[in-house]
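A further point concerns the way the authors explain their paired sequence and structure data. Showing the layout once, in full, would remove most of the difficulty. For illustration, here is how one protein appears when written out as sequence plus structure tokens:
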Amino acid sequence: MTSIITRHALLRCFVRTRRLISEHRTPKPLCSDRSYATEEVKSPKIYTKTGDKGFSSTFTGERRPKEDHIFEALGNTDELSSAIGLAREFCLDKGHTFTDQLDKIQCILQDVGSNIATPRSSAREIHRNRTKFSPQPITDLETWIDHFTEELPPLTSFILPSGGKSSAALHLARTVCRRAERSVAPIVRSGEADPDVAKFLNRLSDYLFTVARYAALKEAKEEKIYRRPE
């Protein structure tokens, strides 16, 4: 795909250069009959058919079966980003001020996926450098958690997923995050991914729990408390 895009870019550059040379040599009147139609460039197809036999590629070029633990973890982090995206839409409707944090988190999850998709056993130095995961997002999450916690009432009972659509959707994202963390943990233990990736997912589930409670508070929605059935 990269080579296709590069060839199109070179073709456009060549056409424009020839046009500029021609215009410089032959001046044209102010109102010419020149066509302003742009060159047609075909976009690469979304499907590649390379996974039709049940195998896919890591960032290092290694072919593995789609049920491999690497792709299981990638699927879970992708699902997590989608769940956060859905929760974000509910939060936007209610005017919550933390949606920019959700935007940033979705972008960081792309970096998480890049790191997971680069198993250290087959990665060259150039791969490791491009997909290295920074610990800064972990610090950011902790700062945000502390900020929201200051405004929340003390937690004295188990909270059930509730508190309005925004809160419930964030709780759902939290449970997907836990699953993503569980699937990443063995990859990190084997040395195939950066330990900070697992730390980030662990802290992210805490953030999602906290911000779910915060959303319920700001919307004045009641959080359901666990009560033992009689």
Remarks:
- The first strand starts at residue 55 and ends at 57.
- The first helix runs from residue 2 to 25.
